[in-house]
Amino acid sequence: MNVQAWVDAYGRAWRERDADAVVALFTEDAEYRSSPFREPSVGSDAIRAYWERATSTQEDADVRMGAPIVAGDRVVVEWWATMRDDGEEVTLPGCLLLRFAPDGRCAALREYWHSEPGRRGPHPGWGE
After folding, report:
1. Torsion angle of alpha carbons 68, 91, 18, 39, nearest 10°?
2. Is residue 126 in some structural domain?
3. Is residue 47 in a domain?
4. Is 52 helix (H, G, I), strand (E, B) or coil?
5. Which of 84, 96, 97, 103 could form a disulfide with 59 if both were Cys (CB 3.0 to 4.6 A apart)?
6. How many domains does the chain have?
7. Across-strand partners of 70?
8. Cα separation of 111 and 118, whole Å?
9. What is the pLDDT of residues 19-30, one digit of tens each?
10. Domain membership flag for residue 125
11. pLDDT tens, residue by residue, 37-57
């Protein structure tokens, strides 16, 4: 899988709240750090549990993925999501820092994001 296909699949899995599709994007021993202040989810079972928990309160998610920036096995990509979470409208812009394994799956993910009430679209130049 190439980087753009991976990014597209990640966005689609999030929109569809499909934990199986997300887990398939990662190596079996991958480290998924959803916040700098949380312990990482390590391995397929932990990533699945995190995704099921994180998306269980999300509805009507519009997830947009920016153009990935690739440097060897490292990738940076912005994302912008709007949704209802726990019944409240919310906007979540963020960034993924990824390290890929030789087989095209992600071996490590670090995520930085911000939450803002209401639905807001991305600013000009976002995701480029």
Report:
1. 80
2. no
3. yes
4. helix
5. 84
6. 1
7. 75
8. 21
9. 999 999 999 999
10. no
11. 999 999 999 999 999 999 999
